[in-house]
TrEMBL record:
Stated name of the protein: Uncharacterized protein
């Protein structure tokens, strides 16, 4: 991701980002997380799909969060809460 300062192409600052998945089902869910934090649901014996661990939705949009903000806001929480994704 690039950040352009004052619409001048000469002052381009590259910022490392993390992809954050955001659930699209309802405003009530508001789940955000990284790809490994999604739960897995079996479709059949071979196929699986990633779903929201909170509401079970399988549609997400992606937000890009600068790496320094991700480390500050999410890393401590994910260390405490991260478990392997259950297969439903």
């Amino acid at each position: 991701m690039t950040k352009i300062a004052l619409n001048e192409l000469d002052d381009v600052e590259k910022v490392e980002c993390v992809e954050i998945r955001v659930c699209t089902r309802t405003r009530a869910c508001k789940w955000k997380g990284t790809y490994p934090q999604l739960a897995l649901k079996k479709k059949d014996e071979v196929e699986q799909e990633h779903i929201c661990p909170k509401c079970g939705n399988n549609e997400f949009y992606i937000e890009y969060m600068p790496l320094y903000k991700y480390k500050k806001n999410y890393v401590d929480m994910t260390k405490a809460l991260h478990k392997p994704s259950p297969i439903l």
